[in-house]
Write a structure and sequence with these properties.
GO terms for molecular function: DNA binding. With 358 residues, this protein is of the alpha/beta class. It folds into 3 domains: 68 residues, 434 Repressor (Amino-terminal Domain) (Orthogonal Bundle); 133 residues, Rossmann fold, CATH 3.40.50; 130 residues, Response regulator (Rossmann fold, 3-Layer(aba) Sandwich). It has 12 helices and 12 strands. The chain has a 6-stranded parallel beta sheet with strand order 2-1-3-4-5-11, sandwiched between helices. It has a 4-stranded parallel beta sheet with strand order 7-6-8-9, sandwiched between helices. A two-stranded antiparallel sheet has the order 10-12. Strand 8, helix 10 and strand 9 form a beta-alpha-beta unit.
């Protein structure tokens, strides 16, 4: 479990004389350097609305803060107001999953922009580590917790999270009244099929996953909606299920080819990669013989295939950003908390070279 530790309040601004470093910097030091009172420094630091501080005095305070390297004791401030400037993020394994690690990146950048620090616990799905991480977050008086998973699915929220403002990211709990921020799987599936429709394709296969998930049902529904809007009859003989891995794409390739489809939407980029391999083994070329669309935009795969794969972007970075925004809305407006709502984030198409225009 990787939980970032918070410094002891007594040493938060410690600048001990080790290796030539300065000793502790206090508000009093800043006030002396700026030629102002301690109360003026405090008003500037806390952005007190309506405070009558001259531009020159404010500028001197900010300059002194920068030159002295003063850092406020955020934990002590948090205890005084009932919550800290820290947000906890509990993840199962997204910290070790390259494309899904963007959730952390987005959450961290949005937290910084709003004056908060993100504390991360990567539990690898271990329930005991998860419980301990949440308890440690609460001991440090976090403002709220983001609970995230590396792939989109329904969960049962840990009971410890009922004691703190929580937002779910890339997952949802149908039995809890918390905000969930998830990919819009329906619109993503629709966008995948629409890329082929816009290129003139009418006989479009759909390779789905055998794993039960919102992605499996949502993307299929979006594919069917795109066909219906284009006046293309749904054809069950063009729809297949396979394992959501490269091997699944390889196994289903022959059946897809036998349908006479000119294009195919794959459940994800790994399935598309397996389909590429199997088609190449059969002497078929993409997109000349079959146009292929993936899903995820896992760039270590999609952008480096030959030809580069047209796909749909899973918005991991945006999930992290919106997760923090929704959490802080709930924190700052307590009356909003306790109401179940689902925020769906758009999955945009990424056009590359695997689609042939008919």
């Amino acid at each position: 479990m990787a939980v970032q530790r918070i410094a002891d309040p007594a040493s938060e601004n410690s600048r001990e004389r080790k290796n030539g470093k300065r000793s502790s910097v206090t508000l009093k030091d800043v006030a002396a350097a700026a030629g102002t009172s301690v109360s003026t420094v405090s008003l500037v630091m806390n952005h007190k609305p309506g405070a009558r501080i001259g531009k020159d005095a404010r500028a001197r305070v900010l300059k002194a803060i920068d030159e002295l390297g003063y850092r406020p004791n955020t934990l002590a401030q948090g205890l005084a107001r009932g919550r800290s400037n820290f947000i906890g993020l509990v993840a199962d394994s997204i910290a070790t999953t390259p494309f899904a690690g963007q959730i952390i990146h987005g959450a961290q950048e949005e937290a910084w922009k709003r004056g908060y620090v993100l504390l991360i616990a990567n539990t690898e799905g271990d329930r005991d580590l998860e419980r301990r991480a949440i308890e440690e977050f609460m001991e440090h008086n976090v403002s709220g917790v983001i609970y995230s998973t590396w792939y989109h699915h329904e969960i049962t929220m840990p009971p410890e999270l009922t004691q703190v403002t929580t937002v779910l990211v890339n997952c949802s709990d149908p039995n809890s009244e918390v905000t969930a921020v998830v990919p819009d799987e329906f619109r993503g599936g629709k966008a995948a099929a629409q890329m082929l429709i816009d290129a003139g394709h009418r006989r479009i296969a759909f390779v789905n996953s055998t794993s039960i998930s919102p992605a499996r049902t949502g993307r299929r529904a979006g594919y069917l909606a795109a066909l219906e809007e284009a006046g293309i009859p749904a054809d069950e003989s063009l729809m297949f299920d396979t394992m959501p891995y490269q091997e699944g794409g390889m196994r289903i390739a022959e059946q897809v080819v036998q349908t006479g489809a000119t294009g195919v939407c794959c459940h994800n980029d790994r399935v598309a990669m397996g389909l590429y391999d199997a088609l190449r083994d059969r002497g078929l070329r993409i997109p000349d013989d079959l146009s292929v669309v993936g899903f995820d935009n896992q760039e270590v795969i999609a952008a480096h295939m030959s030809p580069p794969l047209s796909t749909v972007q899973l918005p991991h970075y945006e999930l992290g950003v919106v997760g923090v925004k929704m959490l802080l809305e709930d924190v700052e407006s307590p009356d909003r908390a306790g109401f179940s709502r689902t925020i769906r984030i758009d999955c945009p198409p990424v056009m590359r070279d695997s689609i042939r225009r008919l």
